Amino acid sequence: MKKLFSILYVFVFLLNCYIWKGIDTNSFSNEKLTIKMNDNILRNTTYRLTLNELKTIEFNGEVHNFSFQAIQNQMYVVETTGKCDTLLRVQSDSIGTITDDNSGIDNNARIYFTPLINEEVKIYSVLSDLDAIGDATIQVRKQKFSLFGYEDAQGNSTIPDLDKPYNDFKDIMNCIKFVNGTESDAYAIDERGLANLNSELVLLSGHGDKGSGTKGGVFYFKAGTIRCSKPFDMSRTNLAVFAACHSAYGNNDYRISIAEKAIKNGAKTSIGFNDEVSFSSSKTFTNTLFNSLSQGQTVESAAKKAASKLLWPWDKGKQYTIFGNKNNIIIGNNPQSKSILQEKNYTYLNQILPFEHYKSENLNDNIYRYYEIINGVMTNNFVDIKVENDSYSLIVENINFYNNILIKKYDSKNILYQYFSKNNIEIHDILDRHCVYFCIDNNMVPLDIIEVRYEIEEKLIFDYIAVDLYHGNMVDYSVINTF
């Protein structure tokens, strides 16, 4: 009988080793826990979890087995909640093995995974202290992307800003667009049992404010707000992007921004703009940002690319701040970024520059943008050059060939005031003006780009207005501010 017991004990031990094989069990906690886990007898029954189900687990020294079948090839998340220190492990043929200890709320676990359609996924949960007794809740849900936009009283709309990010993620996440989104939409509880604002991925595109005194920043919806001075939960949020003016303004002992407040309220990563930002610049930035994220880039890498997509060096959309984990990857593994051109190293800068006269801007790290200068005026012809180890390499080239350089015929000030008067908008102030040449139909056309503020619904709106000084008409800034 004693010999039979010994055989059974060895069988159970080997069974445990097989189930947890190929895994660094130290990632769960420590060697003592590993020994206890291998000595522990797994529960014989496996509970099948359904999507969004909140299942209570009662721990009493055992490992709990679950299974989940994905009906779509989308991104899912499994997490535990409660007061216990829980551990999670996810396994499948396509996923391999993923383990986690404290990525969830408090001492709970959270794992993001992307299975194949109809694939059977095994999930194991245990307490870090196998001798402890307690309970927790486990849930599997689709990762959700909530996008908020609206049209203000003057007809400025951020609703189109949602389209490209939505299309980039719609096949891999549960994407919901809140058109003319309100505060009520943000705080409404969805099928997961969580507020829409508390989604894995969040884009809020609209108006923002520094806030008054020490109350901190504000994001405005079509109706209602998110304020630093009011509680809001983002404990399930992997990345929140506040595409609004002053959404990263402050961040000191006196004043906190709405983007940094998101981190304090549980978000892993957030992005906001430090200053005022135009509607078109914000859209270009977020379109590029989310497209890069959908290709597996880190938040920091995607944000740098988004800023570089804004053509002109003065554009305030380049002034952003990332809070939290800059190396956060929303989808899969981070591939090596690929240059548009095959890189070739040069010893001298003049060997690579196609312009005789130029102006440079430091884009980020060791990458510089060189603009062609004509008659002392910047143009939209440029090259991006990487400087590394005393050598130069061309990584982006945007060269437009032109036949003529046109001259100024109209005064931008008159055209500007006619435009605002026609639309019943009162200019609050003109902040700055930038004269450039932009290649249109093989001609270098003189443009005046004007930074203005005007007032809508007691809020000051910042924007860039572009005037064609040769033809005497307005030009869409979003068209001339990217490439």
Description of the structure:
This protein has 483 residues and is an alpha+beta fold. 18% of the residues lie in helices and 36% in strands. It contains 9 helices and 28 strands. A hairpin with a 4-residue loop joins strand 27 and strand 28. Helix 3 runs parallel beside helix 6 and helix 6 crosses helix 7.
Estimated share of beta-strand residues? 35-45%
- How many strands in all? 28
Envelope shape: globular
Please count the helical segments.
9
- Main β-sheet description: 10 strands, mixed
In short:
The chain has 483 residues and is of the alpha+beta class. It has helices spanning 2-19, 31-39, 163-169, 183-187, 258-264, 279-294, 299-308, 412-422, 477-480, and strands at 46-48, 55-60, 64-69, 76-81, 86-92, 96-100, 110-113, 120-127, 133-142, 144-149, 174-179, 201-205, 207-209, 218-220, 225-227, 239-243, 269-273, 320-324, 345-346, 358-364, 367-374, 377-388, 391-398, 404-405, 427-440, 443-456, 459-468, 473-475. Helix 3 runs parallel beside helix 6 (279-294) and helix 6 (279-294) packs across helix 7 (299-308).
